[in-house]
Amino acid sequence: TDAAVLYTGLANGDIDVFASAWPEVTHVDYMERYGDDIEDLGSYYDGAKLNLSVPEYMDDINSITDLEGQGERFDGTIYGIEPGAGLTRATEQDVLPGYGLDSEYALETSSTPAMLSELQSAVDDERDIVVTLWSPFWANNEFPVRALEDPEGLYGEPESLHFLARTGFTEEFPEVADWIAELQLSDEQYSDLENTV
Questions:
Q1: Sequence-distant (≥ 6) Cβ neighbours of residue 37 within 8 angstroms
Q2: pLDDT digits (tens, 9 = 90+) for 74-130
Q3: Less CB within 10 Å around the terminal CB: N or C of the chain?
Q4: Which of 11, 130, 12, 79 is nearest to 27 (CA)?
Q5: pLDDT at residue 194 in the model
Q6: What gap in Å lies between CA 7 and CA 13, rounded to an integer?
Q7: What are the Cα distances from residue 113, in Å, to 70, 72, 73, 139?
Q8: CA separation (Å) from 74 to 21, 94, 95, 99?
Q9: What does each C-alpha distance from 66 to 61, 144, 150, 177 come to in angstroms?
Q10: Could you write out the DSSP letters of every residue in 48-85?
């Protein structure tokens, strides 16, 4: 699940296809570094977005700006995912400093499962928590969470999800590449697919 490993693997030819890439905004740094050695087979879902989220029972926190001055309430911690994720980079480099939260909060990175475990524990105890999330992602349906408004747009514009492949994939598997290029998923279809996986 670490984007750095996936992009490196594609560029080196160790991985054939990465089927859930965010190359337009979230993973743009990886595309700038490895893009010349990667084939973009096309996008299949529009409107993907990064966010900070809180449980729905936290009625007074609706925007990232509402976190200001609330650091003690959250033990100064925002629970994140893998260190190499684009979401981690955006949160640490753009969102926390951009909203003046970097002196109050630290982003605790580990893994997506570890973040979800913290979220589950907090929800079970109805404890306050802030986590990094994104949509589409199955956890948005499984947990009672709400994405916080990002009035400054520091997480960037919504983007499309892409299939990326190693160099030479299209030449070796032209029929598969054509099929992938025609694939489009609606919100409902993507959600169903994620729930199945």
A1: 10, 11, 12, 166, 167
A2: 999 999 999 988 999 999 999 999 999 999 999 999 999 999 999 999 999 999 999
A3: C
A4: 11
A5: 78
A6: 10
A7: 26, 25, 23, 11
A8: 31, 20, 17, 16
A9: 5, 19, 10, 45
A10: EEEEEEEETT-TT--BGGGGTT-GGGGTTEEE---TTS
- List the end-to-end C-alpha distance of the chain, in Å, as a whole number: 14
Distance CA 12, CA 14 (A): 6
On whether the CB atoms of residues 175 and 51 are closer than 8 A, the answer is no
Residue 45, token pair as written in the block: 């879902």
Residue 18 confidence (pLDDT): 96
Q: Chain centroid to CA 153: how far?
A: 15
Residue 1: pLDDT band (50, 70, 90) is low
Q: What mean pLDDT comes out for the span 50-55?
A: 98
163 CB neighbour count, 10 Å cutoff: 21
Three-state DSSP string of 20-58? EECCCCCCHHHHHHHHHHEEEEEEEEEEEEEEEEEECCC
Does residue 147 sit in helix, strand or coil? strand
Q: How far apart are CA 28 and CA 52, in angstroms?
A: 20
**Amino acid identity, position 88:** T
